[in-house]
Amino acid sequence: MSKTCLNLVLHNFLAIEKNKLLFEEYKVNRDKKNMELLEKEFKIYYSKIVLVSYFSKSLYFAAQKYDRKIRRYQSFKEELLEQNEDSFLYVENINDNNSNNIANYFADKNIFKAIDKLTDRQKQILYLLHIKEMTEIEAASIMGISQQAVNKGKNKAIIEIQNSLNAK
Predict the structure, then answer these.
(1) Closest-CA residue to 123 (of 105, 149, 102, 144)
(2) In the predicted model, what is the mean pLDDT of residues 73-83?
(3) Which long-range contacts (CB under 8 A, 24 or more apart) does 36-43 make?
C-alpha cells in the first residue's frame, strides 16, 4: 500500500472520535492495554475497508459481465433478424402452456425442420435458454440436471442445427 494511501487510512481512522481518544490516551500513558485496543480497532476498521473494496470490485465486474451478456444477446438477436429478415418469425405472445417446442417460434421451414429433428431435451434446453432467457444454471435447476449437461446439450443442439442447415 502506498504511503499516501496509508496516511489517508490512518487519518480517516483517527477521525473517528473513539479511536482518536484511544490514541490520545496511548500517547499520554504508553499503556500496552491501550495499544492492543487501538490495534484491534484498527484491524476491524481496515478489514471493513478491504471488505467494501472487495464488494465494490465484485459488483463492478459483475455489472461488466452482465452488460457483455446483454450486448451479446442483442447482437445475436439482431444478427438473426438480419440474416433471415423475410423468413424468421419471433413470436412473443404465444400461449406458454403449449409452446415448449422452440420450433414453434420459427417460420422458416429449414430452421423449423432442423430444430424439429432435435431431441425433446435439446429443444427444452434451447427453449429455456433462448426463449425464456434463463441462465444455464436456472435451466439446469428446472430440468433437474447439471449445468454442464445443459451446456453440453445446448452445444450439441447448435451443432446439429448448423449441420442440418448447411446440408440444405
Answers:
(1) 102
(2) 70
(3) 41/13, 42/13
Taking alpha carbons only, the member of 8, 20, 80 closest to residue 46 is: 8
Please, how many CA atoms are within 13 Å of residue 32, restricted to the half-sphere of its CB? Answer: 0
pLDDT tens string 109-158: 888 888 888 898 998 998 888 888 889 999 999 999 999 999 999 999 99
Has residue 89 got a pLDDT over 70?
no
pLDDT, one tens digit per residue, over 92-114 is 333 344 445 676 677 678 888 88
| All three cell numbers of 6 | 496509508
Q: What CA–CA distance (Å, rounded) separates 60 from 56?
A: 6
**Cα–Cα nearest to 103, from 81, 84, 122:** 122
* Cβ(25)–Cβ(34) below 8 Å: yes
Per-residue CA distances from 31 to 14, 17, 19, 115, 131 (Å): 18, 19, 15, 78, 68
pTM: 0.42
Q: Which residue in 110, 114, 106, 73 sits closest to 89, CA to CA?
A: 106
